[in-house]
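Forgive a beginner's question, but might I ask you for the amino acids of a protein and the C-alpha cells describing how it folds?
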Amino acid sequence: DSREAEACSFTLTRAFENALAFRPQAVLLLLGTNDAKDLEDVLTQHLQEDVSSLIKTFRRAMPLGYKRNIWLLLPPRVWDSNTHIKPVILEDVIRPILQ
C-alpha cells in the first residue's frame, strides 16, 4: 500500500540528506527495482510524479552549471526473484513509466 511505500522512501533517509548536502555535480538515479514489489495501481498513480519530484529536489541542490547532469537509469531486468520483485510489473509498468 502507498503508506508502506512512503515509510520506506529513500527521501526519508540520512543518505538522501547527505546526498543533497554534498551538492553533487552529477546524479545517477537507478530506480524501480524494489518498486516492482508494489501494486500496479499504486505505481501508475505515483511513480512518475515521485521520480519527477526527486529529480527536481536534486536539481535544487546541485551547483549552477551542473543542473542538467542527472541521468535516470532503467532498472535491470529480473527473471526469477526470491525477494517478491514481480518481473511482469517491472517490465510492463515500471520500465515504460521511466522511459
Q: What stands out?
A: The longest helix spans residues 40-61.
